[in-house]
Write a structure and sequence with these properties.
Oligomer: single chain
Largest sheet: 5 strands, mixed
Order of helices and strands: HEHEHEEEHHEHHEEHEHEEHHHEEEE
Number of domains: 3
C-alpha cells in the first residue's frame, strides 16, 4: 500500500510547491525550509533567488504522519451496526480543529483539506483514556484523596477493587508519574553559584533584623504555619528573584497596623539542581516528529502548574488546600533524583500575587543560611549567604 493511502490522503500535482510563509505551524515551516528545492511558491506567488518552496506532496506526507500518530480509520476500531458505525466519526476539518490546525479558507488550507477529505477519522484508542486525560484525572483523584480521604497512607497500594477505569492513575502511583513527566519535559535546571534571592520578613517598625539567622529560613521551633509547599513543623526557605515579589508574597496588609519589610539578599554558595515550573514549554506541534510524544505530558503540566500555584485565601482552609502541593514538594525533596542521580534542592514557581515574579522554595533550614564572610562557602552546610539587607516601610 502506498504511503499516502496508509495516511488517508491523495497526491496533488507534482508541480505544486509551497513555501514556509504559507504556514503558521513551526514544525511544518521547518520541514519546508529544510527540503525547499524551488524558488517560487505555487500558492502565494512568493519568489526568491534561493530555494524557498518544497513539494506539497512531501508536506502532505508530514501532515499525514502527524495525523495518523493520533487518529485512525474508524474501520480499525469502531463496531458497525446496520452498515453504519455505532459511534460518531470525524471529518478532517474536525481533526484539524482539535489539533489547532488553521481551518480558515485559503489556497493552502483548501488544498490540504481536499487531500485528506476522502476518509473519516477517530482518535486512536477510542475506548480508552488519552494520556493527558489519564494524568489530569489521576491528579484530580490524588488531590481528592490527600485532602479528604487519607492524608498519610495514600501511597499504600489498595487491594480492594477500584471504581476507576483501568487506565486511570491511582493516587499511590501519581507522584512517580509526575516525576516521569517532569523528566520528559526537562524541567530540572541548574541554578548557578552566586544567584541572588530575596527573602522578606514583615515586622513591627520598632524591630530590627540584620543577620542570616534572623532573615533566613524560620527556625524549626517557629515553623507553626502551613505554607504552599511545606506544612507546619517542616521549615523551608521561601524567597523570590526580586524584592517586590518577595514582599508581595509575604505582606498581608491589616488596617491600622503599621509594618516594615526587612529584605535579605542571599546568594547561593554552589551550583544546584532545581525544579523550574516558571516556563513550561508550549505544547509541541502534532507535526513535530521528534517532540510530539511530549504533547500529553506538556498539556497536563500546564494545568498541573496552574493548580499548584493558584491563589489561596488565608481563611483557615489553606491547611487543607496546601496539602497536595506539600506532598508533591516532599516527593521532590526526599525521593526524586535526576537522570544523573542528583538531588533537587528546590522548586521555582510563578508568584500567585503578581503572576510575573519568580518565587523559590529551597529545601534549606535555618542552619543552611549564613552571613557572608571569608570562607563561608567552603562549609558544606552553608547553601545561602546573606550579602545585603534593605528596610522598607509598608504603610
Amino acid at each position: 500500500m502506498m504511503r499516502e493511502q496508509e495516511q488517508g490522503w491523495e497526491f496533488v500535482a507534482d508541480d505544486l510547491f509551497v513555501c514556509a510563509k504559507c504556514f503558521d505551524d513551526y514544525a511544518i515551516k521547518e520541514v519546508v525550509e529544510d527540503s525547499a528545492s524551488e524558488t517560487k511558491c505555487s500558492y502565494c506567488g512568493r519568489t526568491s533567488d534561493k530555494p524557498i518552496a518544497a513539494s506539497m506532496n512531501s508536506v502532505l506526507e508530514v501532515i499525514g504522519d502527524g495525523i495518523t500518530s493520533a487518529y485512525e480509520d474508524p474501520a480499525n476500531s469502531l463496531p458497525v451496526e446496520g452498515g453504519e458505525y455505532v459511534f460518531s466519526t470525524m471529518v478532517i476539518d474536525e481533526v484539524f480543529e482539535e489539533v489547532g490546525w488553521p481551518t480558515q479558507s485559503d489556497p493552502v488550507a483548501d488544498e490540504i483539506r481536499h487531500a485528506f477529505s476522502g476518509r473519516a477519522w477517530v482518535e486512536k484508542n477510542f475506548f480508552g483514556l488519552r494520556e493527558d486525560d489519564q494524568l489530569r484525572y489521576g491528579w484530580e483523584d490524588f488531590v481528592k484523596a490527600v485532602k479528604h480521604q487519607t492524608r498519610y497512607l495514600f501511597s499504600i497500594k489498595r487491594s480492594r477493587k477500584s471504581s476507576l477505569v483501568d487506565e486511570q492513575i491511582p493516587p499511590h502511583e501519581m507522584l512517580e508519574r509526575i516525576g516521569r513527566v517532569i523528566q520528559d519535559a526537562e524541567l530540572v535546571r541548574e541554578v548557578k553559584k552566586g544567584a541572588r534571592w530575596f527573602r522578606a520578613r514583615i515586622h513591627d517598625p520598632a524591630e530590627t533584623y540584620t543577620t542570616a539567622t534572623e532573615l533566613g529560613t524560620v527556625p524549626q521551633r517557629k515553623a507553626v504555619f502551613s505554607n504552599r509547599m511545606s506544612p507546619a513543623g517542616i521549615p523551608m526557605f521561601y524567597g523570590a528573584d526580586d524584592e517586590a515579589t518577595a514582599i508581595a508574597e509575604t505582606y498581608l496588609p491589616r488596617r491600622g497596623q503599621k509594618a516594615v519589610a526587612t529584605v535579605g539578599v542571599f546568594v547561593t554558595s554552589r551550583d544546584m539542581e532545581v525544579l523550574d515550573l516558571t516556563n513550561i514549554p508550549g505544547v509541541p506541534s502534532l507535526f513535530d516528529d521528534s517532540r510530539r510524544y511530549l504533547r500529553p505530558a506538556i498539556s497536563f503540566l500546564h494545568d498541573f502548574v496552574a493548580d499548584l500555584t493558584k491563589p489561596i485565601k488565608k481563611d483557615g482552609r489553606e491547611h487543607i488546600e496546601y496539602v497536595p502541593t506539600q506532598i508533591v514538594t516532599e516527593y521532590f525533596l526526599h525521593v526524586y533524583k535526576t537522570i544523573a542521580r542528583k538531588r533537587v534542592r528546590g522548586i521555582l514557581y510563578r508568584s500567585s500575587h503578581n503572576g510575573v515574579g519568580t518565587c523559590c522554595v529551597f529545601f534549606f533550614r535555618n542552619g543552611n543560611c549564613c552571613d557572608v564572610k571569608a570562607g563561608w562557602d567552603s562549609d558544606p552546610k552553608s547553601w545561602l549567604g546573606l550579602t545585603g539587607v534593605t528596610r522598607k516601610r509598608l504603610n
